[in-house]
Every structure is written in C-alpha cells, then in structure tokens.
Amino acid sequence: MHYVRAGWLERLARGLYSRPNEPLALHPSLVLLQQNFAGLHVGGKSALDWHGIRHYVSQRPVLHLYGWKAGRLPDWFTQCFPAEYHRKRLFEERPDALLQVRPLENHNDGPLVAAPERALLELLSEVGVRQSLQEARELVESTYSLRADVLRNLLNCCTSVKTVRLCLQLGRELSQPWAGKLDPSQLPKGSNRPWVSRSPDGLLVLKP
C-alpha cells in the first residue's frame, strides 16, 4: 500500500492501519474488537473498576475482557493495552443479547461494559482459578450500592453453583444491604451438599 510505504500509515493487521507515532485510543479499539469477538465486553474486576468499585489503584491494571467463544486477543491490541481474555458462559443468555451489558455511559458508540452486578459475579466465578478469594472479599466490601433486583435476576440465570453460593456467602458475611434482600431458597444453589474446591488460597467450602 502506497501510504504504508510512504510512512504515512502503519499496518497493524490485515485491513487495519494507524498513524505512525500516534497512540491507539482504548475505547475505539474495544469497539473494533467487538466486531470480531461474539459477546466481547469489559467485565469482572475491570468493569467494577470502571464503575468506581476498587480496592486499590494499580498503576497499569490488566484489562479483563469477557467473550462467548474461545479466542486470542490480537497483538496490536495487547501491545498497547495489557489485557486478558476470558471465554465465559456464566449466564443463560445469547451473545447478541447479553444480560446487563451496555455501552459505556449509554453512548451508542462506546465499548460494551458489564453492569456492576454482573461484573461482581464474573469476578467471583474466577475465584480459585485466576482470582484470589481475599481480593474478591475486599472488593465485595465496596459493593453496598448494588441493586438487589438486578443481582437477583442475574443469579437466577447463573449457571455456576459456586458463583451463586459465593455471592450469597460473602454478602451475608460482610452484611451488604443487597444480601438481606435476596432469598437463598429461591436461587439456584445446587444440591444440599457443600461445594468444595482446593485452590492456591486453600480449601474453599461453600455451604448450600
């Protein structure tokens, strides 16, 4: 391409170019990724952070992106924005109609971001895998403003017994206002047996 050879444009990937020495902007880059990754959105700890729910401020936090299918983020994106991609089907939903995922600040051209209630459940689903229980507990301490009705609807659609039980357990232990508005008997907690898993944090036991 003439513009590339002349140094006016830099090729990032097939059909994708940028101006030399001009840093990429995160939000337009995310919107571009969403065209190629079904269900891609900012979720988990990153979405909580974007909503102002955080335990500490990292100088350069890793961006947590969630999607419907397995995939790998392109190098042109990760070289500019440290990020992790999580293939996650945590709820009964369709990739083109995600529950509680909206454009940032309701701008039609903004990147898709999970609501704080969904982001919390995405975070808790990673406990024992890529997320420490201690940090999750510290973040739950800051979720007093969560909407109980939204959380209830998400929990009813949640496919992970561990996530449902951990949400209820931490909410009760930390006396969160939303926890008192949830009826555990009406939520999908699985069987009457404890859910047990061994992780780097030790043995995680979640009672029904």
Q: Could you characterize what this model shows?
A:
- By secondary structure, this protein is α+β, with helices and mostly antiparallel strands.
- It has one domain (23-206).
- The protein has helices spanning 2-5, 26-34, 44-50, 75-78, 116-125, 133-140, 148-156, 161-173, and strands at residues 10-13, 16-18, 41-42, 63-67, 83-87, 101-103, 112-114, 195-199, 202-206.
- It has a three-stranded mixed beta sheet. It has a two-stranded antiparallel sheet with strand order 1-2. A two-stranded antiparallel sheet has the order 6-7.
- Strand 8 (195-199) and strand 9 form a beta hairpin.
- The longest helix has 13 residues, at 161-173.
- The relative contact order is 0.12.
- The model is unreliable at 2-9 (pLDDT under 50).
Reconstruct the topology from this structure:
Blueprint: H1 2-5, E1 10-13, E2 16-18, H2 26-34, E3 41-42, H3 44-50, E4 63-67, H4 75-78, E5 83-87, E6 101-103, E7 112-114, H5 116-125, H6 133-140, H7 148-156, H8 161-173, E8 195-199, E9 202-206
Parallel strand pairs: 4-5
Antiparallel strand pairs: 1-2, 3-4, 6-7, 8-9
Please sum up the structure shown.
The protein has one domain. It is 31% helix and 17% strand. It contains 8 helices and 9 strands.
Task: Supply Rg.
Answer: 19 Å
Q: Helix segment count? A: 8
By DSSP, the count of extended strands is 9
Which blocks of ≥5 consecutive residues have pLDDT under 50? 2-9
Main attributes of the structure:
3-stranded mixed β-sheet, two-stranded antiparallel ribbon, alpha+beta, disordered N terminus
